[in-house]
Write a structure and sequence with these properties.
The protein is about 55% helix and about 10% strand. Helix 7 (about 190-200) runs parallel beside helix 9 (about 230-240). The chain is elongated and about 140 Å long. The protein has helices at about 5-10, 15-50, 55-65, 85, 105-115, 130-155, 190-200, 205-210, 230-240, 260-270, 285, 295-310, 330-335, 350-360, 370-380, 385-400, 410-420, 430-450, 485-495, 500-505, 515-530, 560-590, 590-605, 610-630; strands at about 50-55, 70-75, 75-80, 95-100, 120, 170, 215-220, 245, 275-280, 315-325, 340-345, 455-460, 470-475, 545, 555, 605. The strands form four sheets. It has a six-stranded mixed sheet with strand order 6-8-9-10-7-11, with helices on both faces. A five-stranded mixed sheet has the order 1-4-3-2-5. It has 24 helices and 16 strands. By secondary structure, the chain is an alpha/beta fold.
Length: about 625
Amino acid sequence: MDIKNNDSKNRNNNPSDNKKPKSSIWFALIVTVAIVIVISLVYNAITGSQFTQTSYSEFLDAKNAGQLVEVELQHDRIIYLTKAEAAKPANQQKAFYTGLPTGGDTLELAKELDEMGVKVSKQIVEDNSGILMVLYYIFMFGIIFFTMRMLTRRMSGEGAMGGFGRSKAKMYMEKQTGITFKDVAGQDEAKESLQEIIDFLHNPQKYAEIGAKLPKGALLVGSPGTGKTLLAKAVAGEAGVPFFSISGSDFEEMFVGVGASRVRDLFQQATKVAPSIVFIDEIDAVGRTRDSRFGSNDQTLNQLLGELDGFDSSKGVVILAATNRPEILDKALLRAGRFDRRIIVDRPNLQGRLDTLKVHTRKIKLAEDVNLQRIAQATAGAVGADLANLVNEAALRAVRQGRKAVNQEDLLVSFETVIAGTEKKNTVLTDMEKRMVAYHEVGHALVAALEKHSQPVSKITIVPHTSGALGYTMQMPQEEKFLSTCEELMTELRTLVGGRAAEAVVFGVKTTGASNDLQRATALAKSMVAQYGMGEALGLMAPATVQNQYLEGQAYMDCSQNTASLVDQETQRLLNMAYEDTKKLLTENRSLLDEISEFLLAKETITGDELMAFIRADEQETSQETPAQTEE
């Protein structure tokens, strides 16, 4: 239900508001009459400037002197053009007119002028010319009147088009959000923080007895897709109160002052139907830090701050807002008494992803082989929106395959599609390119399999994909970790440069296929030095600062040029050390590298279990050779 419908009902109950339509009609009517009069005067002035009035005697003198070129006889006047004016350019010519004497014989005058060689014309008088003139003025009057009426209604906030100053918020009445906490998974901490607000709206007396007040507002902070808007709708659905939803950008308009007017209108509407919940999405669009240049955005923010201070929280109006850029919000907006609570809506953990997958697959027909636990393990770092998209892509794939249920393969393929895109079936690599790609990918996988602190390899493929990758190696963590040691990060570095190291060991060349690997390795090594204090040159110093942490922003260096140079040198040292260690490891296991690469070339895609089978067989051979050498 749109907020405008509710507002129109309230306006009809207000006597003072009933006067607005009449006053706006009279205003439009007066302005229309004035415009019609001005247009008529301007038209007559323009028309009159093209003719000069003369006496009838002057007309006769010009006729007798043979100076006439063209004459038009009308029912009340004579319009004529002299030879002197006819000689001028057309845009400079000026005609003359004089009155026709009463009872004059126009037929005799026309015959006489024709004999003199003057071009004579006679105006045709229509019987309905007066009616056409009246209709013309009525038509012009009507167009101008309705135009002015529309403008006055728009500026006063009436009519279907709405006013500039009216709030654009959508209002959902009780139970119309259709969303409750059952539809939100993986955000248990955030739901617990919001549960108290719901209980307050249901049982305000319980809190009033002890003197507690309802928090005026709560700010939901988190990465895009984590479910901030969904949480706000779930709060309204659980509380069963009207829910106003508006985006921060809806307050802005090209006219100064419109944003502040919409803020006032929004809070007025929320107060009328209290208890209610107002949700402002992307509040950073209107609540960013003010600067020395005062503008319409500052005016809107000032009005918002005033409304947050002014309304009485005991009436049951709760303000919820969402943003993924809390660092740019104005400090006055974040202080206690306005947004009393900051609720972090973080990326879900393993159990949260599993619960989210269960929510999104409630209406999906699943096959018996589906293992959501494995999908949750593979999607570390994914948010709720990513998981919803993954499930939908799996359902679409099942339909394309002609099945009536989604199986485990559909979910895994959809997950890989999100990472690397779909397979490029028309891309044909040369035999040498295909061999290089195979050794490159096996280099990654072999280093990961032989290192102690690495994630298990689940799949290796050399099939090109639409993301631009000619192949990829997928690792799937067995458990979710929140801390990483220096040795684990060095293992990740060695895994990333494993592809380039394999190219150097086998072919002695460097290819462009390692570009993405090197970019990721450089970023990781730089973070180890500048953020985590894992470099020898800087020690515990961390000169890098991450901004926009919820938007995965880059780290900015806050140091001197000499310190930045040390960071670059230490980053290069870590990369070189990881590269040399990886080359040594692959050289020692060259036979295993060749064997797995040939197997990958034949099959194009192998699983992690097939990879580990080669490694276990090699370990058994090595263990059998060692006792034999000892006996000798």
